[in-house]
What we know:
Layout (H helix, E strand, L loop, with lengths): L1 H7 L24 H8 L7 E9 L2 H10 L2 H4 L8 E9 L5 H9 L9 E2 L6 E8 L13 E10 L3 H5 L15 H10 L7 E4 L6 H8 L3 E6 L2 H5 L18 H7 L6 E6 L13 E6 L10 E3 L9 E5 L2 E7 L2 H15 E14 L14 E10 L4 E10 L17 H5 L4 H5 L3 H13 L1
Parallel strand pairs: 2-3, 2-4, 6-7, 6-9, 7-8, 9-13
Antiparallel strand pairs: 1-5, 4-5, 10-12, 11-12, 13-15, 14-15
Helix pairs in contact: 7-8
InterPro entries: DNA_methylase_N6_adenine_CS, RlmKL-like_Mtase, SAM-dependent_MTases_sf, TRMT11, TRMT11_N
Protein name: tRNA (guanine(10)-N(2))-methyltransferase TRMT11
Subunit structure: Part of the heterodimeric TRMT11-TRM112 methyltransferase complex; this complex forms an active tRNA methyltransferase, where TRMT112 acts as an activator of the catalytic subunit TRMT11.
Amino acid sequence: EITSLLSLCGGQFSGEQEIRVNSPFWILNIPSEEMARGLMKRTVCAKSIFELWGHGKSAGELYASLKNYPTDNMLPYLQSDSTYKVHIHTFNKTLTQAEKIKKIDALEFLPFKGKVNLKNPEHIFWILEDYGMNPNDVPEEPIHLYFGRWIADGQRELIESYSVKKRHFIGNTSMDACLSFIMANHGRVKPNDIVYDPFVGTGGLLISSAHFGAYVCGTDIDYNTIHGLGKASRKNQKWRGPDENIRANLRQYGLEKYYLDALVADSSRPIWRKGMLFDAIITDPPYGIREAPRRMGSQKETVKSVEKSTENHFFVSSSYHLSDIFFDLLKFGAEYLVMGGRLVYWLPIYRPEYTEEIIPRHPCLKLISNCEQMLSSHTSRRLITMEKVKEFKDQDENSYLLDGQYMPYRGHNSFREKYFSGVTKRIAKEEKDNQK
């Protein structure tokens, strides 16, 4: 998320950045404070950002680092007519108030000239202490310390204010608000973009994009969901109300002006005019666990598959294999994304069989990131972000069939069976039997 937002703000995430995987603290080299503020106006993953004045692996190293920090950089924030306070934050350890005051008093060598104001200071300084990630093995002293000037907080409050629990219209698979905002950030959604979701469902992914000023639209094969009809997904509610629909969700957050429309359509069938139409495609295709993946079938197919959607709305549905869903999605993105536009989607994975080779590829799309979210001990889903780097030509239509990428993912057509198989229990039992 941070990498995507840096590039959106005009910055670059270089290999020199100090990313410590086993720490909640990162040191980033950001060209300007303005860019840092722009980053924090979007992120839901990062909590706060600071101008780093010094750091070290011990208190002595921290103090030495602070003494080497250019005084000219400090002075604008330490003037006699200014107010300030020092805040201390410890990760994985709780300090007493006396311990905190002792650590703050140890910084008296800094040239603070202003007055302390704990309620409404002009400048806030933070001591950050990292005591590792293991709550069962907390060291006596921090393994790393940082001191800096607070610049801005992230957007963590969006997770609560956009919570699905408060949402007007939801379904069985409505996307969690936090993940929805992360996906919009991966897609580098910005004001006046056009964002499309081909499996729109109840429109949860449209809301985060609209919040960032993009115009949103989507399609879904389910007539009832698009029109807000049929049985409700909420507990103690039998049928959906007359105003439960995607538009009502956006209206709830004051975002209705960004709503273009939602269409009843089959994502596997072309309905759009040729051309680069969308700045981002952000979606969560069905995995076949809570909602069955379906596409339009022909009248020749078995009569048993005919479903009645609502009165006067019939369609013939046929099975839609996972491998086909994702390769159709990549082909659609390659054709309809603008150059530099991004495709962001979730890919379900059976972990014992996972290798990077099974990630679907397309010659017009470059893989940007691949992040895992665990679902169970043997299944997960991966948030895949791809960027359009090459113009779509007719010869790219079925190129995925030629490069050997199509076959490795075919095994995931049985993802639903594997999800419910309880295979880990069987493996554990076999290992236990082998140890006897």
